[in-house]
Amino acid sequence: MSDVPQVLLVHHLKALKLPTFLREHDKLARQCAAEGVDHPTYLLRLAELELLDRERRMVERRIRQARFPAVKSLDSFDFTALPSLNKMLVLELARGEYVERRENVIALGNSGTGKTHVALGLGLAACQKGVAVGFTTAAALVHELLEARDERRLLRLHRQLAGYRLLIIDELGYVPLSTTGAELLFEVFSRRYERGSVLVTSNLPFDEWTSVFGSERLTGALLDRLTHHVHILEMNGESYRLRVSRRRQGKAEAPTNAS
């Protein structure tokens, strides 16, 4: 009979979904007993452990649901390599207040300057602050929209996209869109106008976006909505990948030059 309370405790903690309580209660009880800690303090410590672990699991779940191609933080971004980028603005955006205000972010610059890294870093920061984030490329999103339209589940997809308080659309401008694809993507932006934040990265300046959407009217309407409440990150500079490649090539050639 002496095992009954322990068995019931394990059962109840599982039913209440308190895995940290279940894992830590015995060890913490012995520790608190050795320290002469009273019961309220013991329960407080146990509750704090559960809350911290629950928040960690929630952040991990939001990161998985965001479908990031890689998890990158702003801590690993080399701001010194890109003088054109406003570091203070990026760090301010990492606080996430723009999401609360339903404002947008657009990162513009040539290929290889770290636009995707910054987008991933801001997306990760948003996840850590409890924001539901979705990540996709413009080409992948258009493909998904076209597929959903053909399968008569476009409204369901729009509801899914609306569930993201921050929607990150990477690589806009790398692939020209069909007329239907451009219209479907425009509808995504239009539905989010003043309802949810969008973070867009593009290798094209605004005056070249018509080449992607194929219509000056559609492009103008899109930019009107997208730039109404916007933070623009200028990210023009030398390609990071090209710079690394040159550095590696230089190291490889160094022994030959030395000889």
Overview of this structure, please?
There is one protein chain. The chain has 259 residues and is an alpha/beta fold. The chain has two domains: 4-61, no CATH class; 74-243, P-loop containing nucleotide triphosphate hydrolases (Rossmann fold, 3-Layer(aba) Sandwich). The protein is built from twelve helices and five strands. The protein has helices at residues 4-15, 19-35, 39-66, 87-93, 97-100, 115-128, 138-150, 154-162, 179-192, 210-213, 216-226, 240-258, and strands at residues 104-108, 133-137, 166-172, 197-202, 230-234. The protein has a five-stranded parallel β-sheet.
Oligomeric assembly: single chain
- In whole angstroms, the N-to-C terminal distance is 83 Å
Beta-strand segment tally = 5
Largest sheet, if any? 5 strands, parallel
Number of domains: 2
The CATH C-level name of the largest domain is Alpha Beta
Shape: elongated
- β-strand amount: 5-15%
Radius of gyration: 25 Å
Instruction: Give the helix tally.
Output: 12
Given helix and strand content, the structural type is: alpha/beta
Name the CATH superfamily classification of the largest domain. Answer: P-loop containing nucleotide triphosphate hydrolases
